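Can't paste images in this forum, so I'm doing it all in text. The chain is below; anyone willing to post the predicted structure tokens underneath?
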Amino acid sequence: MGMNDTPSGERIHIGFFGRRNAGKSSLLNAVTGQELAVVSETEGTTTDPVYKAMELLPLGPVMLIDTPGFDDEGALGQQRVKKTRQVLEKTDIAVLVADASTGVCACDEELLALFKEREVPFLVVFNKSDNADLHRAEEVQDKDKITDAIYLSAKTGEGVRELKEKLAAMRPDKEERHLAADLIKPLDTVVLVVPIDSAAPKGRLILPQQQTIRDLLEAGAIVLVTRESELSQTLAKLREKPAFVITDSQAFEEVAAIVPADIPLTSFSILMARYKGFLEIAVEGVKAIDSLKDGDRVLIAEGCTHHRQCDDIGTVKIPRFLKKYTGKELVIETSSGTGFPDDLTPYALVIHCGGCMLNEREVLRRMRFAKSQGVPVTNYGIAIAQMKGILGRSIEHVHI
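Text version of the structure:
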């Protein structure tokens, strides 16, 4: 997988924030060397967040996000401000773009407070320094106690290189983590079970399957990929039993019946929950399925939007499993993409997708957000394993 193919969830998300006409879009274009964002003298030109995945040296693969002005007014303005807040939830590094001639305004101070509240690393940039009274700007900077700010001009390019270098120095140091490589030894055989049905993407594997294969290959494992319909024959052909079997959650029950009890078994979804750092929360939250009552509302949330198949896991299969397992009349609601509700208290349970398209900050925020509101939260694979009675086996050999 080349750098340009790096999944969005694995990229460093850098958000550009500030008031209208501070030059966020111009700065984004200057940083990338491309005309990515529409630039105009008219305030409020950017009406929706603009996302651009690219290779930005010396940082590596990043997701750059241009946001609407945080001081926007009126009903539409409030919608833009809400979208800006949503972007902040997935931002690894925030760049506050202020006007060098006026310094930090009230909405900039509000953004700085949000950065600190959400513990997002940030950098302050005073743009338009080519036509500003820098003596005045420095006075403003001292007053606002902003240290280590950058003065630059998106128009002339002065200071843009310094910005890139500072962003690179702020790159989050993530501990070495793996989807599955730390569960096996070199030359171990690992069998991956990948159903190919009407809901499977045409001509390709889904992201967690691709990432798991890559992770295992880098660890020196021998990876065999098969459908559940050929699993018995695959296991019979092996001279030694595999070190692990990893299956798609939807085939859990069938695969568990085929794989002998002495062979470790888990799912891509459980491995993704561990990789993203919320497995413990999800295992704790799944217990709520057993206490659901008639009339309880359950939210099924997906991190991305996609075309619904006739047997879609989120909107069809999991509701069907829930109804059969609980025997209760439940109210099932769904959300996708950025439409994750601010208020989760009406729900008795939230069942989230694996989060492969979301970065770690946003997935963990959603999980902790639910927990902070006292709402149990789990994910697809763990919920399915619980309802099929094989959760204990599925996490037995996976470090939480």
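The domain at 181-271 is CATH 3.40.50.11420 (Rossmann fold). Confidence is low (pLDDT under 50) at residues 37-46.
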